Each structure stands twice: as structure tokens, then as C-alpha cells.
Amino acid sequence: LLTYFRVPNLSQESAAMVRMRTLLTNQALETYAALSSWLDEFQPDEVLVPNGRTSRQKIARVAAEELHIPVRFYENGRAQKNAYYLGTTQPHDRLASQEEVPTLTRSLSEQDISGLAEQWLDERMNPSSTTNSFSTAWDPSEQVQPHERTKPLAVFFPSSTDEFLAFGPMWNIDEWTTTFEAFDLIMSILEKRGCELVLRFHPSLGEKSRQYFLQTVSDIKQLQTRHPGLVVHWHNSTVNSYDLVSRADYVVVDRSTIGLEANLMGKPVWINQAAQWDAIADASQALRPADITEAFLERWDVDISGAQRFVTYWMLQEHSLRYS
User: In the chain, what is the straight-line distance between the N-terminal and C-terminal CA atoms, in Å?
Assistant: First the structure.
């Protein structure tokens, strides 16, 4: 429902949402009955499930597991161009994914891990990247005019949350009303330190519902009222996010992948929600207002090895697509 209606939460379900909930439930149960019967009769060696996130994909996994049939998940490549993932861990299972990292990277040297991580980051930052389609709309780094700064720079990167909320309880671990509540508290402390504040929206904001978009605009107006010096780059801005990161002294994200990229660039990163890499990268996590203190926002010498290992884990699991 969160994905179909592109809303931040389901606190107020419309008639259309109620009808869709009923339709999805009925279809999932019908799919379960049909698949259970078919799998029981034909007993395949394994079941391949694309992505595994939607109700019918989840029900396919449940049907196979109840019959003790091995399941593997398929997903578009996340780390390499023209590649795909095929494995036993559901791609958005953030806990199982991070637990696998030490085992799958154990045989590699530190030099190999560093090289693969650098390769991943270079491809992501490439203006013609196939693994980060958003960067193609940004100004190339060499076109950005550097300017002298007398103040520390803090850059904030909000991103969409609806699809992650749909992944289940392991992604719903924070106590924030909105991501901007966390940003507001952090900005209040960093302002007192004389920091320049910049907020850069994720390009996917333009794909949300009108209600979602208007609510975001309202939230930002309130944030700018509280922090008049805040500079906002909207979703359709051509400002290069990687240039902002390279100049930043503080990088604050909710769960965006750019937090992982910033960590690889040696930047201190603060996150305020569950992230795919939150237990392995060298980042500070605040899940409730009480977590945000002066001490919490002290900078540190970043150890990029955890982020490198996580990216290498992604790289190792992907296979090149072959066409015939």
C-alpha cells in the first residue's frame, strides 16, 4: 500500500486503500493456494523469487519454505553495471546481509577489498553511471566552481521512506515523527557551532504522490523558518551531491546510500533511521530525540574499512548478464 499510493504512512486509509488492501490480501491467498498445490505436485529443485518484497513474492517464498524447497532471490544489479544478484538472502534483509559480510569477504586481502570498493564508488560518481541513474542529471564535478569557506559545512540528505517502511519491522526501528524532526535537532546544535547548513533532496521526490510532495514542501518551509540560513537544493536541482559531500565537514542522512558513499570518502556520517549498512560502516546512528547531543555530533577520524567490506560484499554477489 505504501508503494502503490506513494504516501509516507497509512495513518489515514482512504476508501481506495481499503479496497486495495482487500484485493492484495485475496490475491496473495489465491497465489499461496495455487503455488502450494503446484509445488507439492511437481517438487522443483529450487524456487527463484524476484526481489521478494511484494505480497505475492513473499507468499511464493512461504509456500516453498513450508515444503522445504530451497529458495533463492533474484534482483537487478546494485553494484555493477549489466549485472544481477542471485542468492539466498532477500536483498532488503538488512540484518542478514550485514551478518554475511565477514564470511563472504574473509578470503580477500585488504588491497583487494579497497580496490573493489574504489571501483564501485568511481562507477557511482561517473556522470554516465549505470548503477546510479540520478548522477546523470547532475553537473559534472569539474564544472562546479570551488569557493572559499570560512564556516564548517553540514550537508543533509533526506530520501524517500515509503518503500523501506514496506520491508517490515527490521526497517522500522526509529522513533522520529518525520526525518525532518531529527534534522531540526541536529541543525540547532550545528548552527551554534557556526556551521553552514545545506539540504539536498533525493531525485525520487518528484515521483511521489501530490500529497506526499506538498507535505514535504510544508515541512521544509517550517524547517527554514527555524533555520533561516538553510540552503535547500530540491529534487530537480543539478547540483552534484558528490561535490557537496566532498566539501562537507558533517554528512547527515536518514538511510540514503550517499551516506555509505560519504563514509567511503572518509567523511563522518550521522544516520537517523535503519540503513542497509548501519551495523558495519563507521557511522553514528540516532533513532530518537534523546540520542542527539553535543557529544553525539563530535567529529571523529573515520575508519572506512567497514564500508569497503560492505560494498565488496555487494560486488562479489553479482554476476554479469549474458545475452544470446
Answer: 38
CB 94 within 8 A of CB 171: yes
Instruction: Round to whole Å and give the CA distance between 252 and 265.
Output: 14
Rg (CA), the chain: 21
C-alpha cell at 213: 510532495
* Run of H or E residues at 241: helix 241-247
Please tell me whether the overall predicted TM-score, pTM, comes out greater than 0.85 for this model: yes
How many helical (H) and strand (E) elements, i.e. helices and strands, does the chain have?
Answer: 11, 10
Question: What does the pLDDT look like over 259-290, one tens digit per residue?
Answer: 999 999 999 999 999 999 999 999 999 999 99
Please provide residue 196's backbone torsions phi and psi, each rounded to the nearest 5 degrees.
-80, 130
pLDDT, position 146:
52
The per-residue pLDDT for range 36-45, each reduced to its tens digit, is 999 999 999 9
Residue 64, number of CB atoms within 10 A of its CB: 20
The answer to whether 162 touches 266, Cβ cutoff 8 Å, is no
Q: Phi and psi at residue 119, in whole multiples of 5°?
A: -60, -45
Pick the residue with more confidence: 128 or 24?
A: 24
Nearest Cα residue to 102 out of 313, 303, 314: 313
Neighbours of 288 (CB within 10 A): 12
Closest CA to 232 of 270, 211, 202, 209: 202
DSSP for 160-222, written as a single string = --HHHHTT-GGG-----SSHHHHHHHHHHHHHHTT-EEEEE--GGGGGS-HHHHHHHHHHHHH
pLDDT band at 125 (very low <50, low <70, confident <90, very high): confident
Note whether 2 and 212 are within 8 A (CB): no
